Amino acid sequence: MNNPTVNPKFTPAEFEQLVVEALDALPDFFKQKLQNIEVVVADWPTEAEKRAVNLQPGGLLLGLYQGVPQTRRTSHYSLVPPDKITIYRLPIEMVCRTPKRVRAQVQRTVKHELAHHFGISDDRLRELGAY
């Protein structure tokens, strides 16, 4: 399926800066606990990424965590490639009408994916009222 047309509110570089700002805004406690992780920006998820999360046709993926959550790491966790969080620029731009909403959604998506890095599931996030 082709990706829909989006009228971006930010250039790719500006959007990446929003992600950097979201990471910088995290409390020091959380920043200090981040281990072996990289955060990247992509325009759209790949077909493989969509399949990995069982994304329904027409669904949008705003972010994706891939890796071993900290709660599942054991003493055998070594020489492992970094976990990866991908923030998808164009789906976020598509669901947000204003630059202010894009900024807020980037913050929310970064925090959501980092929660997975810390071992918090979508079900638990719902229980906590995070979304």
Task: Please provide a written account of the structure.
By secondary structure, this protein is of the alpha+beta class. The protein has one domain (12-127): 2-Layer Sandwich (Zincin-like), CATH 3.30.2010.20. Helix content is 44%, strand content 12%. The chain is built from six helices and three strands; from the N terminus they run H-H-E-H-E-E-H-H-H. A three-stranded mixed beta sheet has the order 1-3-2. The longest helix has 19 residues, at 99-117.
Quote the average pLDDT.
87
End-to-end gap: 28 Å
Query: How would you spell out the order of helices and strands?
Result: HHEHEEHHH
How many domains? The number is: 1
Concise account of the structure shown:
The chain is α+β, with helices and mostly antiparallel strands and 131 residues long. The two termini are 28 Å apart.
Helix and strand arrangement:
Elements lengths: L11 H13 L3 H6 L3 E6 L4 H6 L10 E4 L16 E6 H7 L3 H19 L4 H6 L4
Parallel strand pairs: 1-3
Antiparallel strand pairs: 2-3
Helix pairs in contact: 1-5
Kindly list the characteristics that best describe this protein:
131 residues; Zincin-like; three-stranded mixed sheet
